[in-house]
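Researcher: We're teaching a course module on how sequence relates to structure. For the next exercise, students receive a sequence and then see the predicted structure as tokens, so they can try to spot secondary structure elements on their own. Here is the exercise chain.
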Amino acid sequence: MSRSVAKTIIMVTGLPGSGKTVFSKVAETMGILVFRMGDVLREYAVEKGLDTTDETLGRLSLELRERYGRAVIAERTFEKIMGTNADIVVVEGLRNVEEFFFFREKAQNTVLVAIHASPNTRYARLRERGRSDDPSRWEDFLTRDQRELNLGLGTVIALSDIILINDGKTIETFMDECRVILRKLLAKSQGLST
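Model: And here is the predicted structure for the students to work with:
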């Protein structure tokens, strides 16, 4: 088994607007390095002089995976992880099982956390967030969800070790739940390094 600098990789998955970014922000407040797979796509788009709309990023995501393999975004994210000396990292945004297996082969310990919220809740969050790649219409939201599911996101969610439901609660409550999970994972990771 090839080995990463990181002993533990916490992989986070879920459909757009489910709460992956909130989970990652909580991790950052706890001193855990976070790597967002979507940032790899956004950086690639900027390098190519392209805009970062959902349509562009979706097309690039499919093109890159078709050209370089379904784990290419994970591979490029892992290159960034290798530039650190972290014992534990969060990787946000897994989309397919190839990415899952890639990271599982690269770390001593992996944990897959899936975050779930209803479509209506997620759509409202994305409209509120207003990032350049967020859908402004319900039809665009459904198209994006379908693209994510076609990549294999549903299978990744089904493989998760931990499922967090982020529906019908305050952001503070959800952040507290994330903190509890992350503390347990930190304690387990520190046990690996002794």
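Model: If you want an answer key for the exercise: The chain is about 55% helix and 15% strand. The beta strands are 8-13, 33-36, 88-92, 109-116, 162-165.
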